[in-house]
Amino acid sequence: MSDRSLVVVSAGLSQPSSTRLLADQLAVATVSALEKLGATADVRVLELRDYARDITNNLVTGFPSEQLKDALSAVAGANGLIAVTPTFRGSFSGLFKSFLDVVDDEALRGTPVLLGATGGTARHSLMLEHAVRPVFVYLGSVVAPTSVFAATDDFAGDVQLVPLRARIDRAAGELAAEVIRCERTAAPDPFALTTSFDQLLAGD
User: How many domains does the chain have?
Assistant: First the structure.
């Protein structure tokens, strides 16, 4: 069996978080789908609430903390990404967008991505298509056709409700297939110096 790295980005703010719950469900389903295709997955979950101050400082100063640098490197080197955001005012959360703003422009190019979101009502479900998907298309990601939105009612009883479960499984299968298909080369280190200090001083 071949190994793949899977990074899960959860932008939930509360604890416990329905956003994290959906992210975990998508991750478990994707790992299962990968196993059926003969691959194992090393999963890393990034709770963006833990990086909130670092992200803000990075936006202001242009320099990431060591903790944030490690998270950004994990995203850049992932074979697949699951990105889940809560819905705020009909769009993604500010924390979610701020994190993507500090991701290197080339870090997600060619990376298979599965999109998910949570919200109070299913009326917000198209937010994934008109707000989130265009951002990842801009970044050059290979976005799975099926995105997964979970409303409050989906978590009111059993998280294994048939409609949500079926959508999770379909989206996970699509992501797994792309992860297998896309043999990514090592992502460039976004923090590596490409110009020597001598060149900088010489104005090259």
Answer: 1
Nearest to 98 by CA among 149, 46, 44, 53: 53
The four Cα atoms 69, 27, 165, 147 give a dihedral, to 10 degrees, of 40
- CATH number for the domain spanning 36: value is 3.40.50.360
- Predicted TM-score (pTM) of the model is 0.86
pLDDT tens per residue, range 151-189: 978 776 554 566 889 999 999 999 999 999 986 554 455
Per-residue pLDDT tens over the stretch 107-124: 999 999 999 999 988 888
Are 108 and 139 spatial neighbours (Cβ–Cβ below 8 Å)?
yes
Q: For residue 165, give its domain range.
A: 2-202
CA distances from 37 to 5, 6, 180, 182 (A): 15, 15, 8, 13
What CA–CA distances, in Å, run from 102 to 145, 172, 193? 25, 26, 17
